[in-house]
Amino acid sequence: MSLLSALSVSASGLTAQRTRAELLVENMANAETTRTPEGGPYRRQDAIFSSAPQSSPFSAEFQREMGSFSNGVEVADIYEDQRDPEKRFLPGHPDADPDGYVAFPRMNPAEDMADLISTSRGYHANVSAMSAVKDMIQKSIDLLK
How many CB atoms lie within 10 A of CB 130? Predict the structure, then answer.
């Protein structure tokens, strides 16, 4: 794997982790949302990752000649939670049903925070990998001077 391919793999990881972090923050922001344009309460979302071939425009020719291709990560799909919403007895709420219950999103703030910390660590690991590759490229250039 070339150094430019390693950068491409890490960049794909950064993009995927950013998407997941955005979804997690959106989930936490809508934890009390009882009405959406689609109707009903907000539904929790999460990113599903899959392996994806990566190629850098600078190293595509080299990879084709050497027959070595690298795999990165991509967001294959966005999963929307289909579980029944959590019902709370709030008879005065504008979204209460005839029995006085309001449908709230099924969220676990502790789980979402743990997922966000994990996503942040994955993002920072990709930044560290890119930094290490950048340092290797710089040292290679210095050797050629």
Answer: 18
